[in-house]
Amino acid sequence: MIKGSIVALITPFKNGGIDYETLENLIEFHISKGTDGIVPCGTTGESATLTHKEHIELIDFVVKKVKGRVPVIAGTGSNSTKEAIELGIAAKESGADAHLSIVPYYNKPTQEGLYQHFKAIAEAVDLPMILYNVPGRTSLNMTAETVGRLSKIKNIIGIKEATGDLRQATEIMENVSSNFLLLSGDDFVNLPLLSIGGVGAISVTANIMPEKVKAVFTHYEKAEFDKARSVNLELYPVNRAMFIETNPIPVKTAAYLMGLIPTLELRLPLCPMKKDNEEKLKNVLKEKGLIK
Description:
The protein is of the alpha/beta class and 292 residues long. The chain has one domain (4-287): Aldolase class I (TIM Barrel). The chain has twelve helices and ten strands. The chain has helices at residues 20-32, 52-66, 81-94, 111-124, 135-138, 144-151, 166-175, 190-194, 210-221, 225-241, 249-257, 275-287; strands spanning 4-8, 13-14, 17-18, 37-39, 73-75, 98-102, 129-133, 156-161, 181-184, 200-203. α8 (190-194) links the parallel β9 and β10 (200-203). The longest helix has 17 residues, at 225-241. The chain starts with a strand and ends in a 5-residue tail after the last helix.
């Protein structure tokens, strides 16, 4: 079942290539900490700078190492419908449980274009698909009406909603059936999104604080609302620090400082943090006991 704390997994690099040894360690780290699902090759995984071959091999590797212990939701989105279909088919062949497809970036299609794009993918790829709306990165917002239309297509089972707009999220729920999955794509609203029918989050912060991110959902499910609020507030400064520069620069830097990854490599055009921002990040990590 797709719900709870799902990590938007970072991609570790070493000497310009994917560091598969560290990637396996990250997978085991998350499973040991109770993470409910893993998203390889999402935007936090620097999918935009992975080659087509790397993208397919990385998904295949993650599926094989996870071995069915938690759902694997493969990032397969593209601003090319044809490429998104190819990546979706590859994810299906690898044995992924579902795939995540982002609103096309740069092209700026109309709402009808978005509908036709995702419809074509769903019809070509026999795998459950989760839509991904993140206008802050794509410069295009998919409306609740369009999501409602798409939710009627058999393979489209949910949406990662990353506008941070609770009104839009509520309107989505108004336009879809009760079994359509609403997942937070913005750690700032993980908790409030549950109150309107959300079932979990595809989280950046879960990369470094998986137990705490999961605790929000666990407490909420048990109707321990005060505890859920308390953990959510505890996470808030970390969530804020994860976005003091472009994601995934801060979370990858944090993972390096915490010893979760042995090298800090980003692919251009992403580059290391400015020193003053790195100090701000370190201060937050120290306050939370994540580094000394």
